[in-house]
């Protein structure tokens, strides 16, 4: 497992832990309260590689938890300029929540790399089978500067 993926997993664990702890509060410090708070959060999505160097072979690891087992997941890239792109064709494996409600997939940029603009933050919008928005995650790309001759 490379260092970026490991750091991403650690960040996810810390974020979920902080969210759960914020719901426990004084007088609610039981394990049952922690699990009840976690179940109220809804689906969470995370990009393990939040800043990606753009190339057609670049890979982005995307994962989620808190989904319904067997739930179909669609990922749409939403640029801040309003352009929406369904990237399902470039995801391996196709994201479907497992028995615990978690999933992981890898997006290979491929031809999408040509569309990425410098200094634009993108949003990955995760939608269910009916295209209802269930979660979001930001992603940024590092675009190489062209050398002047």
Describe the structure.
The structure is a single chain. This protein is α+β, with helices and mostly antiparallel strands. It has two domains: 41 residues; 101 residues, Immunoglobulin-like, CATH 2.60.40.1930. Helices cover 22% and strands 32% of the residues. It is built from two helices and nine strands. The strands form two sheets. It has a five-stranded mixed beta sheet, with no helix packed on it. A four-stranded antiparallel beta sheet has the order 1-3-7-6, covered by helices on one side. A hairpin with a 5-residue loop joins strand 8 and strand 9. The chain is globular and about 50 Å long. The relative contact order is 0.19.
Which terms summarize this structure?
149 residues; alpha+beta; Immunoglobulin-like; 5-stranded mixed beta sheet; 4-stranded antiparallel beta sheet; 2 helices; 9 strands; globular
Tally the beta strands.
9
Determine the N-to-C terminus distance.
39 Å
Shape: globular
Strand content: 25-35%
How many domains comprise the coordinates? 2
SSE series: HHEEEEEEEEE
Q: Could you name the CATH class of the largest domain? A: Mainly Beta
CATH superfamily of the largest domain: Macroglobulin (MG2) domain
Percentage of residues in helical conformation: 10-25%
Compact summary:
By secondary structure, the protein is of the alpha+beta class.
Q: Helices, strands, pairings?
A:
Elements lengths: L2 H22 L6 H11 L2 E4 L3 E3 L5 E7 L8 E6 L4 E3 L4 E2 L10 E6 L12 E7 L5 E10 L7
Parallel strand pairs: 2-9
Antiparallel strand pairs: 1-3, 3-7, 4-5, 4-8, 6-7, 8-9
Helix pairs in contact: 1-2
